[in-house]
Each structure stands twice: as C-alpha cells, then as structure tokens.
Amino acid sequence: MSEGAGQTQAFQADVAKLLHLMVHSVYSDRDIFLRELLSNAADACEKLRYDALKDPALAAAPFVIRIGIDKAAQTLSIEDNGIGMTREELADQLGTIARSGTRAFLDRLGAQGEGAPEENQAEESQNRAPGLDLIGQFGIGFYSAFMVADHVDVLTRRAGSQEAFIWRSDGKGAFSIAPLPLDEAPAHGARVVLHLNEASKDYLEAGRIERIVREHSSALAAPIELVESEGAEPRRLTDGVALWTKPKSAITEHEYTEFYRDLGGQFDEPALTVHWRAEGRHEYTVLAFIPGSRPFDLFDPARQGRAKLYVRHVLISDDADVLPRWLRFVRLVVDSADLPLNVSREMIQESPLFAAIKKGVANRLLQELTKLAEHEPEKFARVWEHFGAVLKEGLYEEPEKRDALFSLARFATSTHPEGGRTLKDYVAGLQPNQTAIYYLLGDDLKRLGSSPQLEGFRARGIEVLLLPDPIDAFWVATAVGFDGKPYKSVTQGAADIKSIPLQKEEGAEKPADEPPAAGLATLFVLMKQTLGEAVEDVRASDRLSESPACLVASDHGPDRRLERLLADHGQLGASTKPVLEVNPAHPLILALAALVGAPDKQKVEDIIWLLFDEARLVEGEKPADASDFAARLTRVLFGAASQPAA
Ligand code: ADP
C-alpha cells in the first residue's frame, strides 16, 4: 500500500468479537462510552506529565480535555493535549485488547458458551445480545465508542513527533491508518471523533453531556471543558483537581464511588473506602477501596494490580507494587510528597522510602479491616466472603501480621457450617479436656461438612474448622496456634479424643472404651494383609460413629490434603501411605469380622477392598484401581442380589 493512502488492517479476533457486541447492543447504559473516552484522555495527560519530567521540551500548556459538539456534522469529539499515539501505537493499542477488564469480560462470555459472533444474529436482535448485562461490571475501554458511533476517527500526534495520523474504523472488523497533515491534528494528543449513529443523536445535547460528565468523570485529574457548538467559547465542567487531594469533607459518597469505578475498572459499589493522609516522617496520601464484588481474575497470577503511584500528583506507575499479595484485591492511589521524581519508576519502587510507604499502607488497611469487622460485622462478612481466601495468604506469607489476621478470619465449622465463626468463638466453645483447635482440609465445603472423619468429633461436641481453600493447608502447617492451642488436623494420626467425653444426647453410642470383639483383631490383621502396600496400617478408630472406615495420615506424615496439593504441583515425589481406620462398632465391620475364616475368601477380600475404595471416594479421590473396583462391586452386588429375600 502506498504512503499517503490509508492502510487497512484487520482487528485482532477478540476485538472483532467485542465490537460486534457493542454494535449490536441495545445496552441501556450507553453513557459509559463517554467516561471511558474521558478516562483515556486523562490517562494520556498523566503520561505526558510524566514524560515531561525527563524531557522538559515536551512540557506544554496546562492539560485540558475538550468535548466538542458539532450538530451540523452530527459528531461528538473528545480531544486531549496528552501524549498522543505514534502510528505503531495506534495499530497496537486500538487494534488489540490491552485492558485486563475487557479480557476478563470476553473470557466470561466465552465461559458462557458463546458461539462465533456471526451466528444467531437474528435471535440476538430480538433480545439483548447474550452477556451484555455483564458489560456493566467491566470497563470496556475505547471500543465502547462503537455503541454510539457508526464510525470513529482518531486524529493524533505523539508529543515530540513530527508526524500525525488518522485512525478510522466502522467497527466492522477492520481499521485504517493514514498520515494526517500536522495542521489538521492536535499539536500533541488525540482527538476522538464519534460519528453518532441514528439512535445516539441525543448525545449532541449539551445538557445531556454535562450531566454525564459531572456524574461520572468529575474526579479526573485533568479539567474537562465543553464546546457546545462550532466556534463557541469552551465552558469548564470540572476542575481537574485530583479527588484524593481534596479534603474528605469536600467529597461526596458518589464522587468516591465514581472514582473507584474509574480506578478499578469495575462498576459495582466499593465495600470500603479509606482515604487518609500520612504525616510525620513521610508524607503521603492514600485513597483505597475494597471492591464490592470479586474481580473475575482475582486468582490469575498474570493479573495486573490496580495500584496507582503518584509523586506530587504526577503519575509514576499505574501498576505499582504497593500492596502485599494478600491485599491484592484492594484498588488504590498513593500520592507521595517525598519520593524523588527524577529517577526511574523501578528505582523509586526499590527505595527505602517506598518500602516505608508500603508498610504503612498495609498496616493501615489491616487496621481498617479490623475496625470494619468490629463495627459493621455484616459488611465485613461480605468482604471476607469475597476476599478471605486471599487475606489468608497473609497468614502464611507474613508471620508478623498473623495475630491481626487471625482475629479477622472467619470460618465455616462442623457446628456452624454457615460460616462466620472466629477463632475466639472457637476457643470459647472448647470441650472439657480439649487442648487443640481441630481442622479438616479439603476443596469443597459441602463435602467437608459431611466427611466421616468428623463423626467422632461431632459425637463429643467438638467443633472442627472446615478449611476449603488451597492456602489453608499451608498456614495451618506453619502457624503455632491460636491462644496457646495448636492446630491439629482431624485426619492426621490417632484422633486422641477419647479423653473428651461423649455427649449425653448421643446416648446410642457405644461407650468408647468397650474392648473390641474378639474377631476384630483377626479382621484387622487380615485387612492389613489384604491391602498390603496400599496402607501403612489398619486400626480401630475413635473418630467414626456412623461410617465403617476412613483414611487418615500416619502420625508423622503430612496431612493428606497438603500431600495431595504438593503432589499436584510436582513438589512431592512418592506420597506416603495412609492409615485405614475402622469403626469397630459398625454393623458392617462386625458382620465382616464374623465372616473371617469362612470359606468364601473372595467375598471378604472384595469387601475389604471396597471399604478402602469407599474411604477414598468420600474424600474426593478415585478408587485405587477403577477396573478392580468395578469387578469387586459387581461380584458383591451379585451376591447380595442373588440372596433369597428375607
Ligand atoms: P485501557 O485504557 O484500559 O488501556 P482502552 O481500550 O480504553 O484500554 O485503550 C487502549 C489503549 O489505547 C490505551 O491503553 C492507550 O494506550 C491508548 N489510548 C486510548 N485513548 C488514548 C488517548 N486519548 N491518547 C493516547 N492514547 C490513548
């Protein structure tokens, strides 16, 4: 393609899909396109402010974002005097998807089983296109322009460059980029021109634009002006004073929320807003939010944080390493008065001053969470529900925060499966002679609650923490305990709960110390022989009351769940053998003991193996050998079915 002519390029596949959704959306909150474009314009100003630190030649007139209405041309334009884009940047940034929120949005659509965009078009036009209600949860960036425009032009000149370009697209799969005479482009920055579609002509009304700007974009750090018609005087709509620099008393709840939405790329309400100014040795301001819902990519290791670091109002990094990992769900702005501006981003983040800020921020956020837990327990419960699994990482990663985090932690337990129990509650409810805090690890709360391992504990009224998150296996292993009580896995070693009395109402129970029936000792020997290398031992259990058998870790081995986690991550070679614990009072075991020595050896052996596999199954594991398991089950079922009816 010759120079001068527009060069046409196809959008990346994901973009095409997103655009299709935009164009075909009858999404009610189309207004968000404006906040997205204004937010980009403000970001472009922030970037130039930063670059101008190193290259004062770039420093320019005060930053401003100007919205222009042209009724004759039926266009709405958004122009900034920020950094602008080079030809490559236009192609890369407006042809692919950079924003993590947009990616998460598309992934969610994918997860809903969306077909190719071209399919089902007829049905889609009837209803809203599938997934559109999800858009509201994400910032979808530049492409939201195609909700209101038939085609979009971006006229831009990168600050310091002698070339300008125009990017155009009708949002139907391709875009073109062509050189633009310098006198038609902004001196530096970008002008986004929206050729409004038929349904969106109401955005040519000044009143409407003004309302949207005040409502959604008043906290942006560059002032916004409106030019109501060609040649009219610009009118200032917002002051361009960054929100966090204002006194708290001058900020409304609504302004905080809008700022959070812009910062977090989420469209919900923050669960907690904390705005403070640290004074003394270091001076900095922090405006932090805990999101009201869980971001979809919370556990994605590649996920970018949303922590903006400013130094004296200049944006240094929009993904600064301010937060410890266990607070990575917090969205925040930190503005330091003391950090040096004239060194690189990387060096700033390595400075001891930055480390002090990090520490201060983490401490303060932990304090605020503690306050919330005390004063607004219901609100805190929701925060814990969304982010508890992340906060618990702190128990493992940051021993000095452990006590504070232990007092925050909320658990589902065997006696309170609905959750919300604190360790303090737990310790207050200890049974006589109970010296440990018992826990059961797993991956599914429901399955944990019905685990046979809990039976003996239930019968004694002992509460057991149900721990369903992968991180749980790690902190319980490192933590010394709580309130002088060590943590103890109910699936590890002998249960040692005989000294805790059975509860009266469970009177149907056999007394724990009744000597095992004579045949049992022989049965255990036979079971051990039959199972051979599959188990370390077979022994009578005091943790079971309803189930015939369960598997536990040996006294000295790691918890079985931890072992499985390590094995899944290739951290562990050979796994240790479990102990099969058998309920000596269970009718099946007693009946089996009576069969020992009977001529039908096969049957006894089948039942022993099936007991073992059943114990694996209730823990969410597979039978030791699926085809053996099936053959045995069939034989035993056949035996039962062919027995004459009683
Ligand atoms: P995001 O802003 O979250 O990165 P967008 O889709 O809104 O996602 O924008 C994509 C990219 O395009 C931005 O990251 C930025 O690099 C570039 N961009 C968008 N608008 C502008 C603008 N007005 N000036 C300079 N660059 C811009």
Please tell me the CATH architecture of the largest domain by its name: 2-Layer Sandwich
- The helix content is 25-40%
Helix/strand structural class: alpha+beta
Give the neighbour order of strands across the main sheet.
1-6-5-4-7-3-2-8-9
What number of domains? Answer: 4
Radius of gyration: 32 Å
Main pleated-sheet profile: 9 strands, mixed
Mind telling me the CATH class of the largest domain?
A: Alpha Beta
CATH superfamily of the largest domain: Histidine kinase-like ATPase, C-terminal domain
Strand content: 15-25%
Ligands bound here? adenosine-5'-diphosphate
Number of strands: 21
Residue runs with pLDDT of under 50 for 5 or more positions: 113-130, 506-512
Structural key phrases:
alpha+beta; 21 helices; 4 domains; 9-stranded mixed β-sheet; binds adenosine-5'-diphosphate; Heat Shock Protein 90; 21 strands; elongated; Rossmann fold; 646 residues; Ribosomal Protein S5, domain 2
